[in-house]
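User: quick one - fold this with manganese (II) ion bound?
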Amino acid sequence: MQPDLTFHRARRRRLLQTLGEGVLILATAPEAIRNRDAHYPYRFDSHFYYLTGFPEPEAVLVLIAAGHSNARPRQILFCREKNEEREIWDGFRYGPKAAKAAFGFDAAYPIAELDKRLPGLLENQTRLAYPFGADPAWDTRVMGWINTVRSKARAGVSAPATLTDAHALIDPMRLVKDEHEIELMQRAADLSAAGHRAALAACRPGKGEWEIEGALLGAFRQGGCQAPAYTPIVAGGANACVLHYVSNDQVLRDGDLLLIDAAGEYHGYAADITRTFPVNGRFSGPQQDAYEIVLAAQAAAIDAARPGNGWNAPHEAALRVLTQGLVDLKILAGDLDNLLEKEAYKPWYMHRTGHWLGLDVHDAGEYKQPGGAWRTLEPGMALTVEPGLYLRPGPQVPAALENIGIRIEDDVVVTAAGPRVLTAGAPKTIEDIEEAMHGD
Ligand code: GLY
Ligand code: MN
Ligand code: MN
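Assistant: Sure. Structure tokens for the protein plus manganese (II) ion:
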């Protein structure tokens, strides 16, 4: 499935309406050196890609709204020129002419003409929207263009007086996914779930965490993901209690659990899946007790991901089940409401239950409304639901539960008909996991 550019054009039109008047400037991400002359794999800027679908580096989007007296709305792309020699070494580039046609712009110019053309495009405009503060080098360049326009004041030319954060205009759009985005997210989720199934099949005592990581990454790529959506966590035993464990260099032991937080990116869209299962394919009694608590917390949290509920409703639902579970495991004692009030769960559940998901794994969009209340969930919003329990050794943790770390994470789209789980292809009930590992 390829990006459908009619959706990108529709997004630019909507953004122009929101902008009302003035100019918006948005650059894509730079290429990044890994070491000496070796680069990291290139990844475009998410805001830029959301609006353009244009995948190359060294590109800038300029949108001009209709509000200005003699302007008509214009959508302009600056990009690299065709270059036969560079294309022999580095591969295809569109060049302005082909990019204009293929990506639906009104005009496209060589990126080398940016400094020459931009001051003219800013003349007599009232407003400039640009992601101020995101990149100091671009900040300097943009302020240079504004100052060039200001220097013409005595000739009667005015510079934009209102400076607006472009991300603040785009983030609310990205928060509610359109139908095309949800299709791409479902594909990212399906391919990522296939990776988790490959990991289940590959897992046994004596294997290295890195081998399971290899099975995951291989499956993501073979399925058609362009990249992992984030660095995989493959954490056996006590490593699962380290929230951002990424060294993935230990040998898996019989009797331990394995926590995997890994997913792929498909045409820019991230999935984000965590599964926890026994290295030897059978949950012990204490592992099962703890697992069922996290699974029940997740079910309650997913059920709360409904239109009209506040952003925090899934978190609150998970906290209630997890805290009762900690009482049942004899780690906590006392009245449930009182324990929740005191945040008594914090030593064993210290993170939130989810985040927005989309082009970025921790996606764009505010969690609170301007007055401070949690944002209300609406159809089309996409979020993760990822409760966990991390039972590091300590005076309150019974010996049988020590070093058990469990997280279960799914990706959910809020719909009028209720929560839609995108990541159901990754087994998560005890029965399904044991069956996947043993075939019984
Ligand atoms: N994998 C990143 C997260 O779960 O937030
Ligand atoms: Mn997550
Ligand atoms: Mn995750």
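One thing worth noting: Residues 176-438 form a domain with the Creatine Amidinohydrolase fold (CATH 3.90.230.10).
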